[in-house]
Amino acid sequence: MLFVEANGARIPAIGLGTWELEGRTCARVVEQALRLGYRHIDTAQVYDNEREVGDGMRASGVRRDDIFLTTKVWTNHFAPNDLERSVKESLARLRLPSVDLLLLHWPNSHVPLEETLGALSHARRMGLTRHIGVSNFTVALIEQAVALSGEPLVCNQVEYHPYLDQAKVRAACDQHGLALVAYSPIARGRIKSDQTLAAIGRAHRKTPAQSACAGWCNRILLRSRGPRASSACRRTSRSSISSSRTTRWRRLPRWPTPRGA
């Protein structure tokens, strides 16, 4: 299995995103993903499926210590007291004592970032999460967050695929030792009809999605989104992205955007 290391965290490079998964379907998808070999599961307060994610984890039979679980705090809980309370409510829904990674889901200009990061750091010190990070942060906000955080930040989760250039965000993450976690890595299904990626895939007997995901996994983390994306990346993880080595973010090469994309 391929891992990425960042500021003390060791994170499985391919993750299952659970946005748009609901009810028993969500629990079953999480259960089956773990049985198929996924070890990184991503949820969020605003997805309204933390309870089902926890149910799927338990039903899978995979040991809790072998699963890397991420959840995210929604923006209306960024005030310090609200953040701590909301995280405890997330853990109650998951029926777990802690998560592996707790993220700020989106920036919120109405609450001072210093206060929110103070509360996030406090949640880590309380043992509610092993690691903390941010999501959808710009370069300027990454710089502020790193300077203000009382505990190490391990990642910034952003949309990232061959059609969206995130070079500046990548560089900022690289500078501070943060992993970049990509959501929508197959561009909500657009990749499957990309002729450049199809040509690359034919040369290696892979699908366009497998070709793209293999390129991403050489240097960042993937978080597939929803059942269609998870299906494509499930095939990728089983057939073309298997490795026992650990990759350090700062040493990873750049992946060129396909021409015509």
Would you give an account of this structure?
Helices cover 41% and strands 21% of the residues. The chain is globular and about 55 Å long. The strands form 2 sheets. An 8-stranded parallel β-barrel has the order 3-4-5-6-7-8-9-10, surrounded by 7 helices. Strand 6 (99-104), helix 4 and strand 7 form a beta-alpha-beta unit. The protein is built from 9 helices and 11 strands. It has 261 residues and is an alpha/beta fold.
Query: How many E strands?
Result: 11
Task: Give the biggest beta sheet.
Answer: 8 strands, parallel, barrel
CATH class label? Alpha Beta
The percentage of residues in β strands lies in 15-25%
Give the integer mean of the pLDDT values. 85
CATH topology: TIM Barrel
Q: Total number of helical segments?
A: 9
Spans of at least 5 consecutive residues with low confidence: 226-261
Query: What's the domain count?
Result: 1
User: Could you estimate the helical fraction of the residues in percent?
Assistant: 40-55%
Structural class by sheet pairing and helices: alpha/beta
The shape is: globular
CATH superfamily membership: NADP-dependent oxidoreductase domain
Q: Which architecture would the CATH scheme give at its second level? A: Alpha-Beta Barrel
The termini sit apart by 29 Å
Strand order of the largest sheet: 3-4-5-6-7-8-9-10
The arrangement of helices and strands along the chain is EEEHEHEHEHEHEHEHHEHE
